[in-house]
Design goal:
single chain; alpha/beta; Lyase, Ornithine Decarboxylase, Chain A, domain 1; TIM Barrel; nine-stranded mixed beta sheet; eight-stranded parallel beta barrel; 12 helices; 21 strands; 29% helix; globular; binds pyridoxal-5'-phosphate
Amino acid sequence: MQLSGQQYQIQGLNVLDICQQFGTPLYVYDADVIIRQINNLKSAFNTVPLRIKFACKALTNISVLKLMQTQGIGIDAVSVAEARQALLAGFKPKDITFTSNGVDFSEIQEAVELGVSINVDNLPTLELFGKIFGNTVPCCIRLKPNIRAGGNAKIQVGHEHSKFGIPLAQLPDVHTLVTKYNIVINGLHIHTGSDILDPEAFIQGANVLFTVAKEFPDLAFIDFGGGFKVGYKKGDKTTNMPDLGEKLSAAFKEFCKDYGRELEMWFEPGKYLVSECGVLFVKANQVKQTPSITFVQVNSGLNHLIRPMMYDAYHEIVNVSNPAGELKTYDVVGYICETDTLGSDRQLNEVRADDVLALLNAGAYGFTMSSQYNARFRPAEVLVYKGEARLIRERETMEDILRNQILLDF
Ligand SMILES: *Cc1c(COP(=O)(O)O)cnc(C)c1O
């Protein structure tokens, strides 16, 4: 979204017109930004055989997935239903990875039947996998590199006490199972967390994988996970992709020489591809003056964007209806009956009732983490593609609230 004169625009369209047409609250995604991010990643790693697998839990709308598909990237799914959505969007099974985490084995069997590639993250599952599939279906294993990296304790998932991945100390057990059942390990995987700024954290993880990889002769790829840092606040530092690309590619080439074969380098970015593309537009219902704080009460809340309340995440907020208004200080709060703060102590251009506010960088983990809490409808979603705003999900209605409920006859 850019300010052009006195108007906020997405691909030249006035965002107020988009909100007028589709109503608020509304998620709007800019396809150009998604494509730009994909290309940034591709060009940072253009000297190695790169495969990008979009971690689609960040934004699963099937039209967004289809857009990703047209850009030649794959999908990292964390449930079979996500994998099925990707298939529906046009992905081939071979371009989808199912990164399971503590799932019932039937879900892995279902994924194998769909033909998607499998990532296993615990020993009991690896044993069952071996027993049932032997050497007929390869699998990747997720390791826990004992690295603490990431923006917030809740999104650090590679450290010693994290539930994710097989601890390095259990590698001997992995080998025992691999030998016993003849399992073909075609990849090694780590994902250390989200909002990782320091290229060193990736290099450190890579070095762990390079060492372990020498014990697995059948590898086709190494998967370095996701977690690149994006900017939420003005002036926030972000992962320096060209720098990371240069350092990691060099290390990877060195490793491949040692390994004796050229492997593929995989990444599974979520946020990096879709955070910046998305804006959540909400309407100011009232401006409520109190002796200490001026609240802007909006027609949305943690039911539509839970990141501020769940992760203390910061989303920049802009009054798109009054770009020239005098700057004043507000707390922007939602309508959910809980403490429901979207942003506190924010300088906004003066807010009046019915103004439209934009919550920026809301493309990742926005809609996908939304709920019907307080019996509120989930917002509609719009994709701006080639200068045209297209509806890609209808706003929910009362029918959606009642769907699957059963009224007993007492
Ligand atoms: C969530 C997740 C990602 C994406 O993380 P981002 O911080 O959004 O890049 C990648 N891989 C796995 C296994 C994940 O669970």
